[in-house]
Each structure stands twice: as structure tokens, then as C-alpha cells.
Amino acid sequence: MSRRHPAPPEPADTRPRAEVEHEAFLAGLASGLGGAHDLPLDAHLHTVRSPDADAQLDGYAALAVQRGIAELAITDHVDFDPAMPAYGFASFADRERDVREAASRWADRGLAIRFGVEVTYERRHEDEIRGWLRRHPHDYAIGSVHISAVSPYKAGNVATFVHGRSLAEIVAPYFEEIIGAARSGLFDTIGHLDFVKRYLVPHVMPADLAAAPELYEPVLAALVESGAALEVNASGLRQLPLETYPSAAIVARYRELGGRHVTIGSDAHRTEWFAYGLEEAYRHAAGAGFEALTFRRGGERVAVAVPIRRVT
Ligand SMILES: [Zn+2]
Ligand SMILES: [Zn+2]
Description:
- It contains twelve helices and nine strands.
- The protein is α/β, with parallel strands linked by helices.
- The chain has a single domain, classed as Metal-dependent hydrolases (TIM Barrel).
- A seven-stranded parallel beta sheet has the order 1-2-3-4-5-6-7. Strands 8-9 form a two-stranded antiparallel sheet.
- Helix 3 (92-107) links the parallel strand 2 (71-78) and strand 3 (112-120).
- The radius of gyration is 18 Å and the shape is globular.
């Protein structure tokens, strides 16, 4: 990778990201991305217990029953960096009570609701995270790398950061943390593997990353070696990349490299985003040859069959 990144182009679209992404969401609805139904699991959902979400758990549950999504994992954010928004935002006790009470309210309607968490992983907080997860058992734990206010990928920093750097240098800080998350052994699943591509648009486009699949190899190897599951996260379909995190090609490559554990989540933060793009994510998993998802409901891992005939 000797190519240096050129000076940042003039962004094609200078509207706020939220506005552009809302338009993408509406276009996706029109093309059927909102119509997921009869699927066994959505393993990544946020409620009002996350600082960046406004959805009520019962709203998701009602939609899940209507649409035949059999099982949900509620995975609100927990942060360990005091500068991050979910730091101290919701207590473990409040989160657990919300989810367990909802689980009993909805059980007789055939819906299973699990108590999960999405922890922001940072290597410098690994020991603290390890201790906390031990003291606070969840049914299911996602470890994700997020973009903090001081991150080089944050709007305002990213144009300067990419200038003069190769693609490998651009993604390195993000992927090094992902590798740390996988190797930590702390998490069932690594969330939205290449979420950084949302922040790189328009300086680096998803097609640029797709043309450099070798950049993913060390990341995928860390997942395969550690046994952490790969999440196929559908939220990228309503965000600037307009593709899942990671793309279908990377899911397939993970399998070729010996990866055996995938999970799937819509990562909804609003009720209307529930299960958006979920069927597409199932298609990617099925297309890569996965016949089951790897999930956990407390205790040992469990396999959740992918309805292959429905999604392919
Ligand atoms: Zn996340
Ligand atoms: Zn999330």
C-alpha cells in the first residue's frame, strides 16, 4: 500500500450527516429494507438506557411480535472513558430490571428478550472492563470500538488525518483496537467490525476499502483465533456507507479463513429503525455459508438456526 491519500475532496454533500442518513433510511424503506420478518434473532438493540437512543423496549417488542422476530438482545451502551456519553449513564441494576421485566411481560406472546450489553472497548480500559463484566454478568456481551470526541475519525479531525496517509495507515488505529477487543476474550461478539467507514465518507469510500480486502486480514485472523463472533450489523445500510458492517465480501472471507461464529443485529436506536436491513444481514451470513448464528443466553453459547430458504 504505497498510494498516499490525496488532499481531501470537497464533500459532495455538506448537509449534516443525520439529514443525509435519514434520507438514506427513507429510500431504503421504499426499497423494502424495512420489511424484515420471520427471523429468529435481532441481537443488537438500544433503548432509552443508551444516551443516543430514544426507543422504548416495549415498542421493539410489539414490532417483533407483529413481524415474527422471535428473540431480541437489548444491548445498551456502557462506556469506561469518562469523556464518552454512556459513561455512568444507566446503572446495571436499572438496565437489568428493565430487560428482565420486559422479558416476563412478553414471554407469553412467544417473544424472548435477553439482557445484553454493548461495551465500548479501549485497550487502555481493558482491565477495568474485565473486572466490571465479571461482577456484572449479562446474557450476552458485544465489544465495539466507537469514535470519541478526540478520535482522528471525528468530523473536524478526519480530513486532516487522512491527508497524506495510506489507506492502511488510515484504518490502523481503528483496526488495532478491534484486534485488541477480539484478543481480550471479554466479548461474545465484536460489534460493527468496520464502523470506521461511516466516518471516513467521503474521504475514503466503502469501495476503496472493498478494493483493499487485505487490510481486513489481521482483524479477521484475530477473530478466528480468539473465537469471538463476527457481527453482521445492519445499521450501515441506513448510514453513509449504505452497506452492512462489514460487507458481504468480508463475512465470506471470515468464513474462508476458518471463522465459525456470526451474529446479526439491526443496532436500532429508534423504534422505526427496528430490524431495518436485518434480512439483508441474514442473506450475507447465509450467502457466506453460515447455517446458524452463535448467540448466548447466559451460560454456554447456543446455535440459532438461520432460515436459509427464507433469506436466500
Ligand atoms: Zn456501537
Ligand atoms: Zn449499538
